[in-house]
Each structure stands twice: as C-alpha cells, then as structure tokens.
Amino acid sequence: ELRAPPEKIAIIGAGIGGTSAAYYLRQKFGQDVKIDVLERGEVGGRLATVTVRGQEYEAGGSVIHPLNLHMKRFVKDLGLSTVQSSGGLMGVYNGETLVFEESSWFIMNMIKLIWHYGFQSLRMHMWVEDILDKFMRIYRYQSHDYAFSSVERLLHSLGGDEFLGMLNRTLLETLQKAGFSEKFLDEIVAPVMRVNYGQSMNINGFVGAVSMSCADSGLWAVQGGNKLVCSGLLRASRSNLIAGSVLYIEEKTRTKHTGNPAKMYEVTYQSGSETRSDFYDIVLVATPLNRKMSNITFLNFDPPIEEFHQYYQHIVTTLIKGQLNSTLFSSRALDKFDLSTILTTDNSDLFINSIGIVSSVTENDRPQPLGDRGYVWKIFSQEILTKEQILKLFLSYDYAVKQPWLAYPHYRPPEKCPSIILHDRLYYLNGIECAASAMEMSAIAAHNAALLAYHRWNGRTDMIDQEDLYEKLKTEL
Ligand SMILES: Cc1cc2nc3c(=O)[nH]c(=O)nc-3n(C[C@H](O)[C@H](O)[C@H](O)COP(=O)(O)OP(=O)(O)OC[C@H]3O[C@@H](n4cnc5c(N)ncnc54)[C@H](O)[C@@H]3O)c2cc1C
Ligand SMILES: CC(C)=CCC/C(C)=C/CC/C(C)=C/CSC[C@H](N)C(=O)O
C-alpha cells in the first residue's frame, strides 16, 4: 500500500538534470505534489546558446547520440524538432602538420584509415559498440522502475566488474591493454578526448568510451537549442521555477497541517536582495556540489554531509565568424582547404583543443557561410584566446564571442563517485558525472533519483539495488 505523496519537493538547478528530475518526479508522485525548481542562473545550465550576428549557436552541450533514449523521448513528448549534426571532413593537427585527413569518398576514407592504422578503427568501433550495448540496459531497468542507491551499483548492474574496472583505470591503460597501437591512440583517440572533454587519455575508460561514441554517425541536436528541452520539461511537469541561489539546506522538525510533527528540509536561498526559505519533504540537488559551482552549505546534519571537492575542468568555447587561416594547418590556401573540423594531438604547445565550422541552432543542413566573411567557427581551448591567437587562426574576423565554463569533471581514475543518497530524503544527481558527463547521463541520474525517492518514500526496498537484473528481466519476457 502506498503512503500519501509528499507535499513539497525542491529541486536545486534547472539544467537538464534538474528539469528531467521534475518530469520523472511528477510521473511517479502524481499531480498533487508541489515541485519547486530553484535556479540561480538561466534555465538550461550547461545547455546554453550564444548569439553571433543574429543567429544562435550552441555554446555548451551540443550533440546528442542517436541511442540517448531519454533525450529522444523528451524531444518527442515535448513536440520539439531535431537537427542533424553536420558531418564535414575532419583532420588532425599535431602542431606542425595534419597527421590525418578525412576524405569525402567513403572508400578512400576506409583505405586511408587502414593504410594509417590497420584495422584499429574498426576494432575501436566494436569496442565502443560492446560498451554501448551494455549501457543500453539502463533503459530497460528504468522502464521497469528499478533504482540504484549509488553510481557504482548502477554501473555494475549494466556492465558488471568490467564497467567498474573502467572507472578505476585510465583510458590509455585500458586501450593499451586491449592492444591498440600508440600511433592510433595519439593521432585519433587523444584528439577525440581533447575535443570532447578537454583532457588527455588519462581520463577514466568509461568516459573515454562515451567520448569515442561521438564518432558514430547520426548525432543530433534540438532545433532552436538544446536548452528548449529544459524549459519544456519544466512546463510539462508543471513545476514552479524560483529564481534564487540556494545557500543552505538544514533538516528541521516541523508541525504539518495535520498537526503531526515531521522531519523536513529547510532550503534557504537568496533571491535578489532578499533571503528566503521554505520547507520540503524531499530535496534533489541537481548541480555539481563544490564551492566554485554551487556553494551550498549543509547545516546541522548528523552525521555531517561530506564536503565535495571535485575539480571541474576549465574550458572556453569561442565562436568566431571569420576566414580561417588555413595555411596554419596545411600548405593549401582556403579555397583548396576542405576540412570543417580540425582536432589536435596532445601537444602542450597548442593553444586550441579543436576548431570546427558550426551550424546555427535553426540550420538543418550543412552550415552556410554568413555573408562574404566566412563561416562561424567553434573553438575549444583551455584558456581565453588572446587577440593575437585569434589573429593567428583567422585571416580576418568580424565577431568573436567567448564563453568560459567549468565544463565537466577533471577525470583522474580511480574514480570514487559521490553518494546519491546524501541524507534520508536528500538526493544528489551530479555524482554520475564522475563516470561521464553528458546530457543523457544527467537524465539517467534524474530518472534514477526520482525512482529512488519514490521507492524510499513508499518503503519499496525491493525495487532498489536488485542484483542480476539483466537475467531477471530476460526471463520475465
Ligand atoms: C562546453 C561544453 C560542451 C558539452 N558538450 C556536450 C555534448 O555535446 N553532448 C552532451 O551530451 N553533453 C555535453 N556537455 C555536457 C553537458 O552539457 C552536461 O553534462 C549537462 O548539461 C549537465 O547538466 P546538469 O543539469 O546536470 O548540470 P547543469 O547544466 O550544470 O545545471 C545545474 C544548474 O544548477 C544551477 N545552480 C548551481 N548552483 C545553484 C544554487 N546554489 N542555487 C540554485 N541553482 C544553482 C546552475 O546555474 C545550473 O543551471 C558539454 C558541456 C560543456 C560545458
Ligand atoms: C551517454 C552516452 C552513451 C553517449 C553520449 C555521447 C555524447 C554525445 C557525449 C558528449 C561528450 C561531450 C562532453 C562533448 C563535448 S564537445 C561536443 C561537440 N564536439 C562540439 O563541438 O560541441
């Protein structure tokens, strides 16, 4: 028998994690519960666009994998449209020369890859596919309402000791052990890690596999901007958005309107010049917990809630409309230069991680040049680019917009993921980023936290941390 639903739930953060949590909590707890989403910045968080000459471009989370089923479902349920991420040709620059260049002919490309790296790229594709196959089990578990109390248990249920092992070893160790050559790792794998996570092959093997999956075809984005999913989910869940920066969370005993005392969480937040607070039965924290990013203090918890010190990688996205100085990368002049993305090898002398032509959030086709002064290029770098650096990259440019981020965890295996259950009815979503940071990972964490909160509220421990779920659900068919 189910207990009466909670009266009020707070979610801190209106990024994809917080807004999908609102959506799944509404599904589980029904229409009567009041859901407040507290956000101190913009709805969308790390899903954000910037405007270049009147057009919007993704500056944060931009591409979505075709097998990211939560994101797919949100887009469908919210009636949004999608755009395909434009392919274009990719090259890899090592600071002196292009060590690899894609060809527009499929066969030619295959021959080039085999010539350079033997069958390593095919083996890599198979390695990623095997991991994705296991990863996809999460959708089955979640559709049957199963939840996990820790990131490690969730990953173990998907890929057993192999997945936990990937969290504890570097991608480099994992792939060397699997027999990949140094040349392939340096010229293909390391550049993919640099464009996606701004880090070397010393990240954990799991996030390495997630990052390599971006080489698959069929990547897509939301027409109008990925952040539209967040505002759509807030609306669909009929949550109440509160503009405010959460300062403290404290457990207190309150007398409910039934006259009974109950343990609740007091959430104190700054809204403009005012400090306000409210009481909640359940709280979900959907932002990375550290001083630099959220600065939330947990007051008077016994035992105290641990301090989180996870270091997030500083990355700068720069969008520039201009004419590329192609001679920086090759001897060919711009009219003969057909690459639209240039990745870089792990060379500390380079001041960029990658540079590529991007489409605006409304373009559904190949990117178009904006007027006569070239395409819009997206550059990822560790530091803010100086004018001199921009002038090295471009023959001319007429607009540059820079967006710095604390983007994703600085991965340093072995990873110890933060707890999901911080206290009795206080949950933390972003611990999942220690395995891999991506929109879909936040959506998975949100669904899991909503199920976990629901089962724990109703005392349904049988739905939490079930072992051998894969086998159990197979025989259930
Ligand atoms: C440059 C870049 C490129 C990326 N590219 C991709 C990609 O192509 N594909 C992909 O899948 N992922 C990508 N990612 C990762 C993806 O964007 C993130 O994993 C995801 O958006 C995280 O969502 P979240 O809701 O968990 O966190 P966030 O989006 O960070 O949301 C947390 C929210 O909480 C708010 N907040 C923080 N503290 C407080 C407080 N005290 N009180 C109230 N509100 C607070 C913040 O303002 C923020 O809005 C990229 C990230 C970056 C930075
Ligand atoms: C979670 C799974 C199985 C797959 C997600 C794959 C994916 C889309 C990962 C995103 C990785 C990431 C942080 C990319 C950042 S850069 C993206 C893009 N190259 C750009 O130019 O913006």
UniProtKB/TrEMBL annotation:
Organism annotation:
Vulpes vulpes (Red fox)
> What is the name listed in the Swiss-Prot or TrEMBL entry for this protein?
Prenylcysteine oxidase 1
| All residue ranges annotated as the Prenylcysteine lyase domain in the record | 100-466
Keywords attached to this Swiss-Prot or TrEMBL record, sorted alphabetically, are: FAD, Flavoprotein, Glycoprotein, Lysosome, Oxidoreductase, Signal
Q: What does this protein do?
A: Prenylcysteine oxidase that cleaves the thioether bond of prenyl-L-cysteines, such as farnesylcysteine and geranylgeranylcysteine. Only active against free prenylcysteines and not prenylcysteine residues within prenylated proteins or peptides. Involved in the final step in the degradation of prenylated proteins, by degrading prenylcysteines after the protein has been degraded.
Q: EC annotation? A: 1.8.3.5
SUPFAM superfamilies in the record: FAD/NAD(P)-binding domain
Q: Does the keyword Signal apply?
A: yes
